[in-house]
Amino acid sequence: MSEKSIGAAAVRIRPLPLRGVLTIGRAADIWHKAALSAPIAFAVPALVLLALGRLDLVLYTSAGALCAIYSHGEPYASRARFMAWVVLGMLASVGIALVTAATTDSTAIRVAVGALLAAAHKTLCDAARTGPPGGLILTFVAASCLFVPHQRLADVPFHLALGLAGGAVAWLVAMAPSLVRPDGPERTAAARALEAAARLAAAGPGGAARARHDAAAAINAAWHALLRAGARTPARAANRRALERLVAHAGTVVAGAPDDPGRLAGWAADLRRNRPVPRPPARPGEDDELAGIAAERAAAPRGVRGVLEALRPGSPLLPIGARVAVGAALAGWASAALGVGRPYWAVVTAAAIFQANITLSWRRGLQRAVGNLAGLALFTVLLPTTRAGGFALVAAVMALQFCTEATMARNYWLGSVFVTPMALLMVEMAGLQPAGRLAGERWLDTCVGVAAGLLSCALVPNRRASGRIGAALDRLDAATAAARTLGAAAADPPQLARARERLTSALVELRDAVDVASGEWWQGALPEERVERAEREGHRALAALAPARAPARAPACRAA
Fold this sequence. Notes:
Elements: H1 3-7, E1 11-13, H2 31-51, H3 58-65, H4 76-103, H5 107-128, H6 136-146, H7 156-175, H8 184-202, H9 208-228, H10 234-254, H11 261-272, E2 278-279, H12 286-298, H13 303-310, H14 317-337, H15 344-352, H16 358-386, H17 390-407, H18 412-429, H19 435-459, H20 464-489, H21 493-518, E3 522-524, H22 528-544, E4 558-559
Antiparallel strand pairs: 1-3, 2-4
Helix pairs in contact: 2-3, 2-7, 2-17, 3-6, 3-7, 4-5, 4-6, 4-7, 5-6, 5-14, 5-15, 6-15, 8-9, 8-10, 8-11, 9-10, 9-21, 12-21, 14-15, 14-19, 15-19, 16-18, 16-19, 17-18, 20-21, 20-22, 21-22
């Protein structure tokens, strides 16, 4: 079904929800990694500058140090490259911001540059699938640098060198755990896949559809992690092969094969506790199946090619980038018109609320407003302590960074409670400012940023979201037809495995496309009947390809 045919259907306005916006959820399973990395990477250069009496330069070292928040789900072989790209991207953004600040005093031009940078950060990070926090940290630092007072062109190289030093510290902090647990990220990814498969195996009829989608998505992420992991020693290669077998085993549950949820959860627990990698009972043709799965996954575009593929003409990411540019520019200009001298916080707020659709952006906007208001109150409470001296200021920022990463996954508003005073205290490092005016301007910026961001969501509709459903339906229909043909022809295991992976990916892509389009406020009626029929036929074809294997209550598995 084409984008045009879907868009021709009746358009309706969907209500924006309030229920559950402030509900606090569970913590992320590896929250402690970012929560510890961020303050450590910040503290090393900050304490050096404090000893030298140049705490005013912390903004530049923290630009690189904040990169330590990224890539904690990446295997170390690819994390080294990924972190290098993030640091270079941060330095490029900071360089553009500092040159702009040094060459013009026009607030309007600075805001425009900040809005374009925010759009570029959002679009590129979504295309590269960096995961949280996406482009927001890059935008926060770049927007702050745009309004640095008394910036000179001659100082830009030195300030970028400080950022590079902070980035080097962040890289070392991010890579340090590899010395203790070199296969930790792959184990975590495989454990998530097994846990999702266990929930699917235990799910009742009412929750099976969502559980199957979640399991397929977790397995897809696990395969991506395993394909990016290195195997420099025979022991590492054996462990990686054993992890591949576990992820493939979880995939058979998605395909419809029954299994014992307790056994799957037990294997996941072994992986998380760094015990020997479990080895499920072997299945006929399993090695050939693994080769087929790896070949299918490796064929997908990755790296720079994957980013370019995601940004091809007609990409649904491009309207989101346009929304960010429009919203951030409107927010900054409106804030400046209301008398805020450095409206970078309005630009950051507008950029922060943009999500995959307007419903999620609405929720994020409300969460941002509530969190920032509470954060301003926390900032006021902390002032007597933070103004006691430079060391107290650095320690407070470190504590707030830890609390931010520890709570952000529970709900964005809760993390914003700690982000707000942390950002304000970093401003204080360059020089003390009147607390009342600082807090008042940040609250005004928050309100203006949220309003401008939501307005731009309405002004720049993402009509390509519907077209993505049509393309995903076509791919699912093709994958379903191919799976049926292979099943009828009794194809060999590698072909069947590749067909299962292609079909599973098509089912995940369709459900993601429907979820995104369903959250658009102004949207044509979705082809719900065709989606339901395509998913039903796809799951039937997937079940027909489920491989035969050992019964659910097999003997205890061997360790790899």
